[in-house]
What does this fold into?
Amino acid sequence: MAVYINPSPGVAGAQCSLTLVSSLAAGNLLLPSLQDITLNNSNDVFTWTQLDSGSKKQVATTATNSLDMNIVLDTETFFGNVSATANSAPYFGVFGLSKNKTLCSFSLYLGDDSTGANTKTITGNAYVTGLAPTVSADSPVWISPITLTVSGDYTVT
It folds into this structure.
């Protein structure tokens, strides 16, 4: 029997969650309202030709890692909380972390599995990029794509 990762929308403590921590000061920023998360791990490939072969040769090199998602914006998470510890992720908010080019630690909990047991957490260091908030008459709340461009490898626990 397969055991599937189940992000459990609406189930407290069991659903998928993303936490950011600024490299400048302690303090967790839990991103609420995550939508359509994509975890990317793309290996680069070096290609060459040689005279004794009719086909190109290839070897895998370093990977480009990133997390892409959409978030529904709330004022404090997006713009920060000036009452939080100075230079912490909650103090800057998502916009400040991006604008200030602050390296963050992240922790992506994938949610419980289909049996109700805890699954994997993916961690690493990343920069917040790709913010582009939008609103429309059909979607009367602000939504923004967000990318975490990973510096180095993922760690899976």
